[in-house]
Amino acid sequence: MSDIVSINKNNYELKLCPKMGGAIVAYNFIKDGVKSKIMRETSLEDIKNNNVLAASSWPLMPYSNRVKNGEFEFDGKKVKLALNMNGVGHPIHGHAYLKEWEVVEKTDSLIALEYHHQPDEWPYEYKIKETFELLDNGELKADFEVESLCDCAMPFGLGHHFFFHRNDKTIVKVNAKKMWLTDADVLPTEEVNIPADTDISKGLLVEENPMDTTFSAFAGDAEVVWPDTNSSVTINADSDYKFAVVFCPKGENFVCVEPVTNRTDAFNAYANGDKNTGTLILNPRAKYSVSATVKHKL
In 3D, which of 263, 222, 269 has the Cα closest to residue 243? Predict the structure, then answer.
């Protein structure tokens, strides 16, 4: 399908759909004609219908998770964002995943996509480039670079919304010490130590622990394990990824492990004086970059 661009290396294939939010639509290990799904695979029908919510992963920019009531203030400027996902009562995950991206570089094992944002309800002009590279050691390297194109500072956050393949034996581990309790709208209410009986750093069976939880005091590494195939993926993220979100609703075929720079509703908490929200500030005409890797192990 012409909307899909692919890279391959050492039995690994990665497929992306630039027009569908710069999303990953497949990440597989293929050997002797047998395909093992690392991330859930997007159907051709969903790609045809531009259904980014069925993707294998999409970019979270210029913020991860929810902004309460779509409102915040920064440097005296009030920002009002519209709802952007059916069934969610607050704007969620920014806007980059809803936009068309452009391929700006491609080799057999590397692809770079770019999105140029013109000011609208998000009143800041910027460019973001995401680069994916399949390395020799079986790692997928995922880089972001953000460039300010405006004359004022911009608050932002970003991350990856990875949807990993899941079955009834899948285990998830996140190297974190704290978590955020939430209200009925999944907005944060209190940061607490992770209870001993659900210590995700030691591994939890996904099937028995449905959640939509932001973990903090995140050390940058997480793992999804498939004991039935003796395989796993390990995520290693730069230190600016201060949070990890795990989203695994009951009865689904995926577990999301999302390395993100900001916590939910970070901009409002930052405006209220909280300096531990993960809110990043991009100065006028400045650039910012951050990296993460996903390593598949057999």
Answer: 263
Peptide bond into 62 cis (omega under 30): yes
Name the average pLDDT for the chain.
Answer: 97
Torsion of CA 176, 180, 184, 185, to 10 degrees: -90
Domain boundaries, the chain: 5-297
5-297 in CATH: which number? 2.70.98.10
Q: What letter represents residue 75's amino acid?
A: D
**Confidence at residue 2, expressed as pLDDT on a 0 to 100 scale:** 67
Q: Name the residue with tokens 């998770």.
A: 65
For residues 180 and 187, give the distance between their C-alpha atoms in angstroms, rounded to a whole number.
9
CA distance 79 to 73: 6
Nearest Cα to 88, choosing from 64, 60, 62, 69?
69
Q: Tens digits of per-residue pLDDT, 157-173?
A: 999 999 999 999 999 99
* DSSP E strand stretches across 10-136: 12-17, 23-31, 34-37, 59-60, 71-74, 77-80, 102-106, 110-117, 126-134
Q: Greater confidence, 134 or 2?
A: 134
**Locus of tokens 């003796």:** 230
For residue 153, what are the contacts with CB-CB under 8 A and spacing of at least 6? 74, 75, 281, 282, 283, 284
- Neighbour count for residue 6 (Cβ, 10 Å): 13
Q: Is the pLDDT of residue 129 over 80?
A: yes
End-to-end CA distance of the chain: 30
pLDDT digits (tens, 9 = 90+) for 178-190: 999 999 999 999 9
Tell me the pTM: 0.97
Which of 75, 68, 21, 17 is closest to 44 using CA atoms?
A: 17
234's tokens: 């390990």
Structure tokens at 285: 């005409």
